[in-house]
UniProtKB/TrEMBL annotation:
Top-level lineage group: Eukaryota
SUPFAM superfamilies linked: RNI-like
GO cellular component: SCF ubiquitin ligase complex
One of the GO biological process terms: SCF-dependent proteasomal ubiquitin-dependent protein catabolic process
Official protein name in the record: F-box domain-containing protein
Amino acid sequence: MSIFLLEEILVPILELFEDDTQSLHSCLLVNRFWCHYAVPILWRYPFEDRWSGRHFIVNSYLECLDECSKEWLLKFFCGIFPTSVLDIQPAFDYIKFLRKLDYQALHQAIEFWCKYKGIDTHVITQDLEPDYVHPTSVILDILIDLIVERSTNLSKLSMSVVSHREGEFLDLSQYEEFACTFLPKLQFLDCDDCIPGNLLLASRIATNLSKLNIECSWGNDVEIFSLLKSQKKLQHLTVTKRWPHLDKDALENEILSNSLTRIDFKNNRNLIDNGGPLCVLSVCKNLEILCFDDWKPFCEDDFLTLATTSFPRLRKLVFTRCKPPIALATMIKTNGLNLQEFILTWQNNERSNPRHTQVIQAIAYNCPNLTYLDVPIESKDLQELYHLLCNCRKLESLTVNTSANDNKEGFYYSVDHFLPKMGLIIPKTLNQLKIFAPWKFSAESLQEFLETCQAQIKCMELYRWINDEHLAVVTRYAKEKKNLRVLILRWTETTYPVRQKAREAISDLQAFNSIGRRIK
């Protein structure tokens, strides 16, 4: 009875450490009972980036092969295959714990493992006609067959194509029986449109996705649309390289338009073919988060239609590494009342433009419910920043970022006239302040800002031109207010003794030199 009770308590606790590999490894060493319940959690996502030495996982998977497969490998590789790997009997059947199959990561791990074991050269089979094969592809096929047979709990699949060479892409039609078993349970799919058959098969069977990441590089828009419109529960869609041509009329009455709450656009540098119009998204009335990252071309007329659409639940809007569309200010005016988070960085080669000021103005007068704001502020925008702080009284986090126009070595502008006034109007709700813009101010201005600031700032990050006098001012503030817990100084000119004294009042003080290295 006590063992059952311990299991009932232990397993939910271990589940909390699903993303903490180091802690789970420690749990393995407690005793056999703990090990028995920690191993299945540890081996759910073995190819995530948080794992180190992925190729060692291949060892454990090969150990799980049956004797017949092991003998075939030894015979096929004609004595160059390491027999020590196949002689070991695994303590667990690690394959059956797998929750996410990442085809590309598995391929890379096997490729590295082959080089590590010295079998990275082509193998000549013992037929009448010599045949050159790739060891990586052979082992990959065997492990995929093993996963198909034993991994009954798969809920996530990443099957991006490695290359067009046979054996380096996953063809679901070869495992249709297996696909019909696990695809209906699939919640996350990461793929590209290189193999149209995979998309068509998924559109028939994998209809319960909650998250879909798809790279649209090959123009198979019909198959992409078929996959999208088949979804019943899709909430998060990420599209890279290109937005496909979608039928707005067909999409309008689909369940998809009601279920989608987040759309991410990433890494589109195709200046010739930008794909289909974005205005089809206007039917997604439950959209909460819309993000564009490194999305170069915007068709202004198309974006204007999107910008004038009201999304009643839109709470987060992100434009990073983009050339902002002209209608961005219009979009903020249309949906600003609901916005809680707004992040914006200009494209690196984007010069100073009046639309930047228009965007800051639109935020200042139309987004009263913002809690998180990260925007570039140029010297000409200080007055608009003042109005923004006066009107956005619910701000909890503010990042004053640098713009491409100001991001030049040695460039700065003085804010001694502005910083004290900023302290008077900072919202009381603010607890995090980051200043990356090239602001230069005296220790006296900083002191006046902190004295007049009514917010309980818990985290502060300052960039450049911060010397010992500035740090002494912040230290006094931390001792008096007792609320500042984190202070990060980048490109700092402070000295070690002053930083040590500051650490007596600030529990987490981090300092970095001009090349980004952390200093004591």
